[in-house]
Structures are given as structure tokens and as C-alpha cells.
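Is nicotinamide-adenine-dinucleotide placement plausible here? Inputs below.
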Amino acid sequence: MIMPKRMENNDPKVLKVGMIGGGSGFISNAHQRAIFMDGTRRVVSGALSSNVEKAKEAVENWPYPIEGYDNYDELLEAELAKPENDRIDYVLILTPNHVHFDPAKKFLEAGIPVLCEKPLTFTLEDAKTLAEIVQSKRIPFCVAHTYLGHWTSRLARFIVQSGLIGEVRWVDASYLQSWMAIQSRDPEFVKTAWRLDASKSGLSNCGGDIGTHALMQLRYVTGLEVVSLSAHMESLTPLSESVEQPLDDHITVYCRMSNGSPALVRATQIGVGHKNDLRIEVNGELGSIRWAQEESEKLEVYLIEQPERTYYRGGIKPNDGFFGDIPQELLDEPTIPWGHSEGFHDAFARLHRCFEADVRAFQKSEYEAGDGSSYATVDDGVVGMSFIKKAVESSRNGNAWVDC
Ligand SMILES: NC(=O)c1ccc[n+]([C@@H]2O[C@H](COP(=O)([O-])OP(=O)(O)OC[C@H]3O[C@@H](n4cnc5c(N)ncnc54)[C@H](O)[C@@H]3O)[C@@H](O)[C@H]2O)c1
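Reply from A.M.:
I modeled the complex. C-alpha cells:
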């Protein structure tokens, strides 16, 4: 009989996932697909909306029966009433930023691993509290920085950190969107969009929402940290008078990295024509790499006095000769043959897959704290929150340089 690998490993269990939020919004659909993709994880319960009626409706419309709850406290209570083996294996938090901390803290304290959307929390203090709990309980925690899950992000990280392009001299990491320019023309939208509301979004709109993705991409690919910064956090879209405290829709952050080199982290929501244009360019003393999420299967590599190279997901052979020893886990990772396109959903699935491995290890008391090589950890989430806080501080103080 042929058995799946997890059965050979004597681990036939399909992981049970609880979902908080996720009754609406494209991101919930992306997570649902990612959870389902390998057949080893399944959503079994949810508190799917802040609105009880909508939560019920979302449960009724789920493609198969799941347990629905009016709120996440009830969900947790129901889980804790079950024998430990029957409980959810991890919880997924898909709510707006101001509703990340409370459920994350409660589920962690109950010993349930958490996969949480970004930015990690509403305040830096809350993020640090979560990190302390994660550390003291040694429990898996993932922040959903989607784009680390692209195979080409993994390859970019390997190339830069193996030294192929030499010492990093300059990084340009950006996330450019247009939705504010378009949707702000509708005054009703402005009134209802939680991202524009400081009491739900936090200190920053654009910076927290997509600037943190650009920062995370920089840190993940280069392995460098931002040690100081000078920021412009701007609100360039005229909003109706009902918005008392307009948050940024455009950020430009000039950074000094831990190797002494400069970098630019920028993000905008007003760039008409840009869709989800996350891109990174890392320039080293010997060459550079360029990657853009809208063409996420492709990585460009330029070395001085060498032919220009474009690599595609899956198109690298172990004995390439150009890269040296490519880690086996990188070669093993692609889920489908090259030429068949992968994208956003596969990146999410890769995060869930890696998180699943840590959850299974945790349940066998074999978990070692995530090192951030396969998904963003709670500590990465803290760095993101700190970056935003410092950027706002710098911007309010005439773009003064601030240590991170
Ligand atoms: N990783 C990514 O690429 C990515 C992309 C988009 C959004 N996000 C993040 O996902 C989160 C949600 O964003 P969105 O655009 O999906 O928002 P959304 O407004 O479309 O959806 C939020 C959902 O959370 C529900 N909710 C709110 N409070 C709740 C509560 N107390 N209990 C249960 N459900 C509750 C709402 O009813 C809604 O269904 C944000 O933190 C955002 O930054 C991440």
C-alpha cells in the first residue's frame, strides 16, 4: 500500500484550524485556499465576523460544515472544554489591526499556536507582550508576511546571503498601490474604510499595511536590519472633513542598515497604475538582484562582466555551477513543475505548510523556535511595529534621523 508521507511518519492527523475574522475580504479566501492546498490542514471552526448575523451567514455558506461562534471568546471557551487532542491545532487571525492582540494573547495563553495577519498589533507595546508570551511558552507564531512564501523570495535570500553579489551597498524595497487614489473619490468609502481610521489601523495606514511588507522583504532577503531612519509619512489624498486625523497614504523612509549601507523603504497607495507592486532591488559590490511580486516566478541576477541571468521558479538545477551549493530544501520546495504558474495563493500555502511543520513539532515537544527562514516570526512582527513607530516619530520631528 502506498501511504502519504505524514502517515509513514506515523502522523495521520489533519490539522484543525480555527479562524477569527475571515467572513469577508479577499484575504480570508486566500488563507482558506492555502490551508486546504496540501490536504493536511482544514478549517473546522470560526468566529468569522464582528457582526453576529454575518458570522452565522458565513458559517452557513461555508463549503462544508464547521462550528460557528458569535465571537472568539466563545470559540476559545468551546475549544478549552474539549479534550486536548480534539482541540484546534492553530488559530488564524484575519481581523483588522486593532483586533489582533487580544485574540492572539488569549489563544497563546491557552497553549494554541497562532498565525496572525500583519501588521502584528495596534501598538508596539502589545507586539512586545506577544513576543514575551511566545518566548516563555516556546510556542509557534507566524506573522502573515505573504511574500516570503514565494519560492523566488527564498532563492533571492539564498543568493544574497551566500555572498554571490558581494557586500550589500544599497537596497530599494517598495510596495506601490493605487487603491486610495481610486476609492477615496467615494465619500462613503472614506467613512467606512477601517484602514483610514486611526482607532482601528494604528499609528499608520500605508506604512503599517504595506510598508511593513517592503521592510520585511528587505530584512528577509538581505539578513540586514534597519538601525536608523529618516521618514516622510505623508497624506497626499484630500479626504472629506469627516476624517479628523488623516493617516499616511504615502511613505518614504531613508534607512541605514546594520552593515552601514543605505536603503530606501517606500510605499504608496496613490500610485495610479500600480496594483500590488511590491518589488526589491539589492545592489552589492559584485552585482545585484531584482524581484517583483507581480512577476513573482522570476528573479533577475546581474553580475559585473557576466551575462545577465533570469531565473524562474523550479528552473535551477543542483549543479548549476553559478550559485554553489543550493540548499536541498529550496530545490525540494516547488509544488508544481516550472512553467505552470504559481503565485499569491501558493506563497500563502508555503507559509501555512512551514507553520504546520512547526505546529506538529510543537505537539511532539520537538519544536525549536522559528528562525524566520521560512515565515515571519513574532519577533519580525515586533520589528515591523517598531519601524512604524520610529518612522512616525521621525516624520513628526521634521524627518529627523532616529535610531531603531
Ligand atoms: N498578508 C496580506 O497580504 C494581507 C492582505 C490584506 C489584508 N491583510 C491584513 O488582514 C487583516 C484584515 O484585513 P481585510 O482587508 O481582510 O479586512 P476586512 O475588513 O475585509 O475583513 C476583516 C474581517 O474581520 C472581521 N472582524 C472584525 N472584528 C472582528 C471580531 N472582533 N471578531 C471576529 N471577526 C471580526 C470583519 O467582520 C471582517 O469579516 C488586516 O490586519 C490586514 O492588514 C493582509
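Short version: The longest helix spans residues 344-363.
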